[in-house]
Amino acid sequence: MPVSPIFNPKGNDDIAHRTMWFGETTNLMQLNDVRYSWAVGLYMQMREQFWIPQKLDITQDVVDYWNLTPEERCAYEGILSYLTFLDSVQTCNIPHIKSSITAPEISLCMAEQISQEAMHNHSYQYLIESIIPPERRQEVYDFWRTDKVLLGRCEFVAGLYQKYVNNPTQENYFIALMADYLLEGMYFYNG
After folding, report:
1. What is the mean pLDDT of residues 164-180?
2. How many domains is the chain partitioned into structurally?
3. Contact indicator for 118, 148 with CB cutoff of 8 Å
4. Which residues are marked as active site?
5. Residue 173's CATH number
6. Is the pLDDT of residue 36 over 80?
7. Domain that holds residue 166
8. In a domain, 41, yes or no
9. What value does the mean pLDDT take over residues 22-32?
10. How far is CA 187 from CA 73, 78, 83, 90, 179, in A?
11. For residues 175, 94, 99 and 181, what is the CA-based torsion angle, rounded to 10 degrees?
12. 101 falls within a domain
């Protein structure tokens, strides 16, 4: 399955010919005339939900961490570890999914999601580095490796992504999309 070329002067950006996936785009980000108007609204909404981790006041979080029971602290650390892994893998995977998107308005949303996944990953690491005691941080980063349930979930979703990367067929592409929904809709939500 071919990936969209970076530069395609023979492409057709006319909205009547525009498709979400596997089309013949030039890759010009012309957003004055769009086929999928919902994507422009989604992009604007995504931009409004942007934050920078260092601008968050986590003073109370540091206090609260020390008031947790050992079991609650373990759960908190496990969640931070798991979410760090999930957003790391999303930052790496979404460019593969984006490579077959041919509607510029949807491509723009995907580019924003890549940026936000990286920022979320940075945010979780900011929490780990600011709240977790230094001697525990590496153990927290590695919790997804040592907890059998988290490791199994990570292996499952990453395996579906890797299947597409190794064998980029349309079927594997849509399996990777479903894995993306699984990660965002269940794995992330549970975290």
Report:
1. 95
2. 1
3. no
4. 124
5. 1.10.620.20
6. yes
7. 59-190
8. no
9. 87
10. 20, 13, 9, 12, 10
11. 30
12. yes
